[in-house]
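Hi all, long-time lurker, first post. I run a small reading group and we've been trying to get comfortable going from sequence to structure in the token notation. Rather than ask abstract questions, I figured I'd post a concrete chain and ask someone more experienced to write out its structure so we can walk through it together at our next meeting. Sequence below, copied exactly:
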Amino acid sequence: MEIKKGYIGRSAFRLFTRKKEPIPPNTAKQTDLMAVLLADRRSAESIMNYAQGDLRNLNGVEIKELAALPGVGEAAAAKVIALFALLQQLLSPRQAQPSESDG
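-- Answer (accepted) --
Happy to help. Here is the structure in token form:
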């Protein structure tokens, strides 16, 4: 997938939804997907370099480590940490929510 410069999210949307040979998002490179999430290719590339090309290598990394990477900063670091938190919540079994009458 080749996401063009400029509006990364719009470019990705067009690639994912085009009529002729749309690109399935699950076939995109991790760097491209990270660039879409962060809306910034430079920070995505910096994070992917730190992760040695595989986001799984970031599991458990400290937010301050990410924020200190060139071109990343606090906002992008927070987004990556939030992404991992969401993934953990989505992959863990659902827990029963206590009803109002229980407490």
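A couple of things your group might point at:
The chain has one domain: 8-91.
The chain has a mean pLDDT of 88.
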